[in-house]
C-alpha cells in the first residue's frame, strides 16, 4: 500500500515538473512573440513615416528647400554654441575660418554681385545678351571644313552678307531647318498672357511692353510726380 502511494506521489511530482516546464517554455515563447510584435510595430511606424516624408518631398517642390534650410539653421546654431564655448563672438567669427574658405566666400559674393548687375532691368535686352543669343543660335549653323576651304580658294568673306553671288542648297536648307526648330521651340514656351482693359497702352510690341514693365518696376516711384504733371498739363 505504501509502495503504491509512493509511486503515485512520484508520478504526480513528475507531472507537475513537466507542466511547470511547459508553462515556462510557453511563457518564454510568448515573450519572444511579444518582442517581435513590438519590433514589427516600430519598423512599420518608421516605414510609414518614411513613406509620408517621401510623398511630401515628391509632391512639394519647396519641401527640399525647407529641409535644407532647417539643416542649415541647425548647423548655424551648433556653430554659435561652439563659438560661445571658445569665447568668440559673431563679429570675430572670421578668426575660425581658413584663408581658403574666406577666399571662396569672397569670390562667391563677387560673382553674385556681378550676376545682379548683369541681370538688372534693361540688361536683359543689352547688346551683350543679344550677342550671346546670336552665338548660341550660330552653333546650329556651323561652318563645315569644305565650305571654309571653298571660301579661302574663292576669296569670299562670309561676313559680307548679301554680297555673295549664289548660295548652295545645303546652306539654304540648314537655315530653313534652324528657323523651323526655333519656331517649334517658341511654340513650346508660349503661354497665354494676362491683359487688363484698364491698362495704359504705352508699348508698340510685346517685347516693348515687357521692357516698359521692367523700367516701371525700378523707376515709377521716382517719376510719379513728373508723370502726374505731364498728364495734368502743369509741367514746367
3D structure, described in words:
There is one protein chain. It is built from 8 helices and no strands. It is mainly alpha-helical. Among the domains are: 15-95, no CATH class; 201-235, no CATH class. α1 crosses α2 (61-86). It starts with a helix and ends with a helix. The relative contact order is 0.03. Belongs to the SYF2 family.
Biggest sheet descriptor: none
Give the oligomeric state of the chains in this entry, treating copies of one chain as homo and distinct chains as hetero.
Answer: single chain
Helices and strands, in order, run as HHHHHHHH
Q: What is the count of helical runs?
A: 8
Strand content: under 5%
Indicate the overall shape: elongated
What is the rounded Rg? 40 Å
Total strands = 0
Overall average residue pLDDT: 77
Structural class: mainly alpha
Percentage of helical residues? Answer: over 70%
Straight-line N-to-C gap:
140 Å
Catalogue the unreliable spans: none
Family: Belongs to the SYF2 family.
Function: Involved in pre-mRNA splicing.
Region (Disordered): 84-112
GO biological process, one term: mRNA splicing, via spliceosome
Amino acid at each position: 500500500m505504501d509502495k503504491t502511494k509512493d509511486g503515485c506521489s512520484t508520478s504526480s511530482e513528475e507531472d507537475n515538473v513537466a507542466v511547470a516546464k511547459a508553462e515556462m517554455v510557453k511563457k518564454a515563447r510568448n515573450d519572444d512573440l511579444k518582442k517581435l510584435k513590438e519590433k514589427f510595430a516600430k519598423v512599420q511606424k518608421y516605414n510609414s513615416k518614411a513613406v509620408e516624408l517621401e510623398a511630401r518631398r515628391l509632391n512639394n517642390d519647396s519641401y527640399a528647400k525647407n529641409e535644407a534650410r532647417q539643416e542649415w539653421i541647425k548647423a548655424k546654431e551648433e556653430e554659435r554654441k561652439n563659438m560661445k564655448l571658445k569665447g568668440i563672438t559673431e563679429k570675430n567669427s572670421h578668426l575660425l575660418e581658413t584663408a581658403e574658405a574666406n577666399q571662396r566666400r569672397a569670390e562667391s559674393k563677387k560673382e553674385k554681385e556681378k550676376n545682379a548687375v548683369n541681370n538688372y532691368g534693361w540688361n536683359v535686352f543689352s547688346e551683350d545678351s543679344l550677342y550671346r543669343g546670336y552665338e548660341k543660335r550660330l552653333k546650329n549653323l556651323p561652318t563645315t571644313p569644305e565650305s571654309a576651304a571653298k571660301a579661302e580658294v574663292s576669296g569670299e568673306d562670309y561676313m559680307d552678307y548679301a554680297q555673295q553671288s549664289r548660295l548652295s542648297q545645303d546652306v539654304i536648307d540648314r537655315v530653313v531647318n534652324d528657323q523651323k526648330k526655333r519656331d517649334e521651340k517658341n511654340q513650346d514656351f508660349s503661354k497665354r498672357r494676362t491683359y487688363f482693359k484698364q491698362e495704359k497702352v504705352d508699348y508698340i510690341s510685346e517685347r516693348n511692353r515687357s521692357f516698359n514693365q521692367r523700367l516701371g518696376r525700378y523707376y515709377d516711384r521716382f517719376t510719379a510726380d513728373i508723370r502726374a504733371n505731364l498728364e495734368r498739363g502743369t509741367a514746367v
